[in-house]
Amino acid sequence: MKLLADENIPQASVRQLREAGQDIVSISETDPGISDAGVMQRAHAERRVVVTFDRDYGELVFRRNLPVPAGVLYLRFRLEGPLDVAVCISNLLARKIELEGWFTVADRDQVRQRRLPARSN
Question: Reduced to 3 states, what is the DSSP secondary structure of residue 29?
Fold first, then answer.
């Protein structure tokens, strides 16, 4: 699985995930200031799962006719430390929760998923 970390994802978590062997690209490193639509386009082109704290991605995926990424992981919790995202993703993977093909909403206590629309733009 390939991940694309939105700008709001701490770099410490990105580094931790890389050290754990995850294929993750950080928008902060490669395209700071890119629009959310640009993030979606890139994630679609590279078949990556977007990891974000930005709730606008739900609208981008389900209400606009934008290219669909491999998946979206929308994190709905307040950061208590810079490694929280890495811990969350590691826990999801350990629980064998599939992120590709899904819009996943994760908070500290639960995970909800909705199948992504089948658009190939």
Answer: helix
Instruction: State the Cα–Cα distance between residues 63 and 118, nearest whole angstrom.
Output: 13
Helix 84-94 crosses helix 11-19 at what angle (to 10 degrees)?
Answer: 40
Q: How confident is the model at residue 118 (pLDDT cuts 50, 70, 90)?
A: confident
How far is C-alpha 37 from the chain's CA centre? Answer: 14
Query: What would the mean pLDDT of 47-60 be, rounded to a whole number?
Result: 95
* Confidence (pTM): 0.94
116, two tokens: 């992504």
Residue 115 tokens, joined = 């199948």
Q: What distance in Å separates the CA atoms of residue 40 and residue 28, rounded to the nearest whole number?
A: 15
pLDDT digits (tens, 9 = 90+) for 12-21: 999 999 999 9
Burial class (CB in 10 A: 0-12, 13-18, 19+), 8: middle
- CA 69 vs CA 43, 58, 93: distances in Å: 5, 12, 19
DSSP 8-state secondary structure symbol assigned to residue 6:
-
